[in-house]
């Protein structure tokens, strides 16, 4: 029974730091979240042609060489000599190759020569098994600029993916050298993106949106960002009382090699959170009305020792590069960017710049692409240490989204709607907008029920003592009073006995020491003294009959004693001056 009780007590202590989850639902007026909207195409292609002309030219040449087609020409492959005559710097930096028979023998599409590829091979579409001809496997080779023998080959099952990845690498290299002010002008303005706006049944305009520049998505616009200190709220659920906007997408001005889909991206987030469009953004298609219903949930987890989460991120040894409240994504991206700067000497274009760093480009950092891919490989395999350092936030807000799509505008209303929107856009009536240039978006609360999920300690000191007492009562019929008595007997009483014994020993030692200091050497006559006159009897207690018999005999010459009292005071003094006669007669007789 004792062993079972000890085992039960150990289980209670082991499960002491456990938490229980409670869910609270309350109906109230809810703050409206921030809604960030971006065009999928980051920059107007007509504005970027001067910067991307050489890259676009080489991309078209690659398509012609790969697949034998070009714009406005017959599908004829270019010869190797014609390719070499152009002298492409882009293919010098990252040569495109084509595999044969799944081996490391590849054809360099720039030189037309077959060669053995050395180094590691990384298949970027590893989840896709290529069942077609091996000649369809296309990739590019990255080599260490400081050591040409250190190379890595990245292959793709689809030529579309290979061309896009190759294009994006050069695109980021070009954009990293353009100043931010210039890029903001090259992207879409609020007037370009927003056609109509309604919130909570009232009209709104571009003044309710805040511009936010994203490296990969250009100018994005956030509704209800809270920068002016005011956060909008809504007291009614339903699509008519949320945010309704009509977006102008402008498909004709899209970059054909950078993006292959049309529409916009949105993300619903808290005002203090950074909008990671590329990670969790929701795509909105054109020629459709997209309705996004929201459910609001707040979550709160217990920090250490209950869970491995962080309150504010102050205990995480990673600098927050986003100037927003801490989140796991912010920590991971900041950690990778810091490792990029430390390992490669420059920063990756898609993430914010650390202090004192600059974005990578060929001119200053010829080795950055090889370094970036090797570092990203370690990050994905969790060998960089970022996943071990970064933790989840203890408190966070979440908006669960439900998306529905309907055709918009309808066939019967398409004509007049496009004419009116064209007029609002400032165009002529005979050049009305195309419905593939427009997207209708509605973001609203489906209900005003706020769900609060919180963790609470499952055990407290009172509960622990109650469970402990319950186990004792169940297995030993013992109560708390019994436990106190056991503690008293085995600990308090034992301690008092030991302390009393030690006190007696100390008292005896002190008395012996005091006696040794006050006692004189004995003389010959002292041994015969007795009674209370004998100085040997120093016992504080009075002598008994038995001890008196054992006292030595008194000496011949006793010590001087206190003289007896003077009894002269007891004599009678006569009150008469003369003797009485009768006394005289008596005396005479």
UniProtKB/TrEMBL annotation:
Catalyzed reactions: Na(+)(in) = Na(+)(out)
First-listed, main subcellular location of the protein, grouped into a coarse class: membrane
InterPro entries named among the record's database cross-references: ENaC, ENaC_chordates, ENaC_CS
Name recorded for this polypeptide: SCNNG protein
Organism: Ardeotis kori
GO molecular function, one term: ligand-gated sodium channel activity
Pfam families in the record: ASC
UniProt entry tagged with the keyword Transcription: no
Subcellular location, record wording: Apical cell membrane
CC annotations in GO: apical plasma membrane; sodium channel complex
TM region(s), chain numbering: none
Protein's membrane topology: Multi-pass membrane protein
Domain of life: Eukaryota
Similarity field: Belongs to the amiloride-sensitive sodium channel (TC 1.A.6) family. SCNN1G subfamily.
Region annotation (Disordered) ranges: 511-535, 549-568
Compositionally biased intervals (Pro residues): 555-566
Lineage: Eukaryota, Metazoa, Chordata, Craniata, Vertebrata
Keywords on record: Cell membrane, Disulfide bond, Ion channel, Ion transport, Membrane, Sodium, Sodium channel, Sodium transport, Transmembrane, Transmembrane helix, Transport
């Amino acid at each position: 029974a004792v062993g079972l009780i000890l085992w039960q007590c150990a289980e209670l202590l082991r499960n002491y730091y456990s938490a229980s989850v409670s869910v609270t639902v309350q109906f109230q007026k809810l703050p409206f979240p921030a809604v960030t909207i971006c065009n999928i195409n980051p920059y107007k292609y007509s504005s970027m042609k001067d910067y991307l002309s050489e890259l676009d030219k080489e991309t078209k040449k690659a398509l012609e060489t790969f697949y034998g087609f070009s714009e406005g020409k017959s599908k004829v492959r270019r010869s190797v000599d014609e390719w070499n005559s152009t002298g492409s710097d882009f293919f010098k930096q990252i040569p495109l190759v084509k595999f044969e028979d799944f081996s490391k023998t590849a054809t360099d599409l720039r030189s037309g020569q077959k060669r053995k590829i050395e180094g590691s091979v990384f298949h970027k579409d590893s989840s896709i098994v290529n069942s077609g001809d091996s000649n369809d496997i296309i990739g590019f080779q990255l080599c260490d600029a400081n050591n040409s023998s250190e190379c890595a080959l990245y292959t793709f099952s689809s030529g579309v993916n290979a061309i896009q990845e190759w294009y994006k690498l050069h695109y980021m290299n070009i954009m990293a050298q353009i100043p931010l002010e210039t890029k903001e002008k090259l992207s879409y303005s609020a007037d370009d993106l927003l056609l109509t706006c309604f919130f909570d049944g009232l009209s709104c305009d571009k003044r309710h949106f805040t511009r936010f520049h994203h490296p990969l998505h250009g100018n994005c616009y956030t509704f209800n960002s809270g920068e002016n200190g005011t956060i909008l709220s809504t007291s009614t659920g339903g699509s008519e009382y949320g945010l309704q906007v009509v977006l102008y997408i402008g498909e004709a001005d899209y970059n054909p090699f950078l993006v292959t889909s049309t529409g916009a991206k949105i993300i619903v987030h808290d005002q203090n959170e950074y909008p990671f469009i590329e990670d969790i953004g929701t795509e909105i298609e054109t020629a459709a009305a997209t309705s996004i219903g929201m459910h609001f949930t707040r979550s709160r987890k217990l920090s250490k020792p209950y869970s491995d989460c962080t309150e504010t991120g102050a205990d995480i040894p990673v600098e927050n590069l986003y100037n927003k409240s801490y989140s796991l994504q912010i920590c991971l991206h900041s950690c990778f960017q810091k490792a990029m700067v430390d390992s490669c000497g420059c920063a990756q274009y898609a993430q914010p710049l650390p202090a004192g760093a600059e974005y990578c480009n060929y001119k200053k950092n010829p080795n950055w692409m090889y370094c970036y891919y090797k570092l990203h490989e370690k990050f994905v395999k969790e060998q960089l240490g970022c996943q071990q350092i970064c933790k989840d936030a203890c408190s966070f807000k979440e908006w669960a989204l439900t998306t529905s799509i309907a055709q918009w505008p309808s066939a019967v209303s398409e004509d007049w709607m496009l004419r009116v929107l064209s007029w609002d856009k400032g165009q002529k009536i005979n050049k009305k907008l195309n419905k593939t240039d427009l997207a209708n978006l509605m973001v609203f609360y489906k209900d005003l029920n706020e769900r609060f999920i919180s963790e609470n300690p499952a055990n407290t000191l009172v509960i622990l003592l109650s469970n402990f007492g319950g186990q004792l009562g169940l297995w030993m019929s013992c109560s708390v009073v019994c436990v106190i008595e056991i503690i008293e007997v085995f600990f308090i009483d034992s301690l008092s006995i030991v302390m009393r014994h030690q006190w007696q020993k100390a008292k005896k030692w002190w008395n012996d020491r005091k006696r040794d200091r006050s006692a004189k050497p004995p003389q010959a006559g002292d041994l015969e003294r007795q009674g209370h006159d004998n100085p040997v009897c120093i016992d504080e207690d009075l002598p008994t009959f038995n001890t008196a018999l054992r006292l030595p005999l008194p000496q011949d010459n006793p010590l001087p004693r206190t003289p007896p009292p003077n009894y002269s005071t007891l004599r009678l003094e006569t009150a008469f001056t003369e003797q009485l006669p009768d006394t005289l007669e008596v005396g005479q007789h």
